[in-house]
Amino acid sequence: MRKTILLSASMAAALVLTSAAMLVVPKEQATAAFPGNNGKIAFTSRPDGGTNEIYTISTTGDNLRRLTHNTKSDKTPAWSPDGKKIVWESDDSLYTMRADGSNKKKIPHTVHGNYEIGRYGSYGGNPAFSPSGRKIIFDKDKNIYTINTDGTKLTQITNAHAGGRSKDDPIFVHPVWSPVSKQIAFSWLYPPPTEGSRPPDGAMEIHVMTLSNLVNKQFLNAGSRVTPAGVGVYRPDWSPDGKQLTYECSEDPCDESGSASSYNPEIYKVNADGTGNTRLTNDPADDSYPAFSPTGSKIVFSSNRPAPSDGSTDYELYIMDADGNNVRQLTDNSALDILPDWQPIP
């Protein structure tokens, strides 16, 4: 489901804070696919030289509608469980609006920093609804927070130190609530290793934990990890039945033997208990930002296919079956179309 992302040619370059060789693109999001029928897809689009805006489009590629109109950066849309509202980031705060773009409301007490830790590791924002639709989960200052949709009861969940990336502290980002339980999936960026069991500096893992068990956590144990250790995996998204996660991995293959020099973002799927890790895409282009459909039968993602030779950032949205078959292009324009989330219709 938000932020600023830096594109680089390798994971090593992707884990520095800034580089003249990198390209800044909007930050990433992770959301849950709430059960229901397949509705429209909300996404972030940015024309060349323009401002990030929120759009919706039907799954047939028509009925494109722009929902935001301002000079601020609008990104990371995420649908409510009933499909009637969207939460998103505008500049450094969170907002909600109706599915048609009306009734925009700022959520108080959601100001978040905008830190960059590489192509896959920006943090600050990344909002997603709870299964009840009454709370929002998001990240700021390297930690996970929850808040009521009216801005009350802001609660810090994890206890990493605030501020920019350091070599002593972990970073918790991309939190997303299971559609059917109290479990949370999130990305965790490790500090440099001090023990043999920790992954290398800058490695990210996806973990699944019950929300109550995550409270005050700074370091985690490998028991909650559902993706390979020591490789670059990012942006989890729950299937509507809460049994699987789809995610993005920049290494080939995305397993324990993965190498930081094998940069090629692809889409994977894994069971919530960490079994059944499966690669879904295999393309030289960047395949990113996966999100399940409300029926669980499809996955929407963003890609700059065919692989550009000139550094092009013309990303389009694509839809495929949940097993990786039958890929079809959804959008076709000169803008950067990323961060899709699929509307559930009860």
Provide key terms for this protein.
single chain, 346 residues, four-stranded antiparallel β-sheet, disordered N terminus
Task: Describe, in plain words, how this protein is organized in 3D.
By secondary structure, this protein is mainly beta. The protein has a single domain (4-345), classed as Neuraminidase, CATH 2.120.10.30. Helices cover 2% and strands 39% of the residues. The chain has two helices and 25 strands. It has helices at residues 11-14, 211-214, and strands at residues 4-7, 23-26, 37-46, 53-57, 65-66, 74-79, 85-90, 93-98, 105-106, 125-129, 135-140, 143-148, 155-156, 171-177, 183-189, 204-210, 233-238, 244-249, 266-271, 278-279, 287-292, 298-303, 316-321, 328-329, 336-345. The strands form seven sheets. A four-stranded antiparallel sheet has the order 5-4-3-25, with no helix packed on it. Strand 21 and strand 22 form a beta hairpin. The protein starts with a strand and ends with a strand.
